[in-house]
């Protein structure tokens, strides 16, 4: 993957996350605050815990920090996949956001 492709795919992923959170806010599903600085997206959940999604351009990875720990994802065959478990990024983010918020949340 070229650096330009990585940048496009990683920025698209961050936008998808922000758009989903905005939909939840509009539909009064859950109150999550987002703050984005470049390639770092911080999600603050109702209990004030955080999920942090961070792009890692030198490694061409996406990192997720959650209460449960840190996860690293690489793009393969059209999806972001955990380098250890093989779990897809949005599934992992959904699981961690649901655990930390106490509400079933599904990122699509």
TrEMBL record:
PROSITE patterns xrefs: FRATAXIN_1, FRATAXIN_2
Alphabetically ordered keywords of this record: Iron, Metal-binding
Alphabetized GO MF terms: ferric iron binding
InterPro entries: CyaY (IPR047584), Frataxin/CyaY (IPR002908), Frataxin/CyaY_sf (IPR036524), Frataxin_CS (IPR020895)
GO cellular component, one term: cytoplasm
GO BP annotations listed: iron-sulfur cluster assembly
Family from the record: Belongs to the frataxin family.
Function: Involved in iron-sulfur (Fe-S) cluster assembly. May act as a regulator of Fe-S biogenesis.
Protein's name according to its UniProt entry: Iron-sulfur cluster assembly protein CyaY
Organism: Ideonella livida
Species classification: Bacteria, Pseudomonadati, Pseudomonadota, Betaproteobacteria, Burkholderiales
């Amino acid at each position: 993957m070229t650096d330009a492709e990585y940048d496009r795919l990683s920025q698209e992923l961050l936008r998808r996350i922000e758009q989903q959170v905005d939909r939840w806010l509009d539909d009064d599903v859950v109150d999550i605050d987002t703050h984005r600085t470049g390639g770092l997206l911080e999600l603050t959940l109702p209990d004030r815990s955080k999920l942090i999604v961070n792009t890692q351009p030198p490694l061409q990875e996406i990192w997720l920090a959650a209460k449960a720990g840190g996860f690293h994802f690489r793009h393969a065959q059209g999806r972001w996949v955990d380098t250890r478990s093989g779990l897809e990024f949005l599934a992992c983010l959904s699981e961690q956001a649901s655990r930390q918020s106490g509400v079933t949340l599904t990122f699509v």
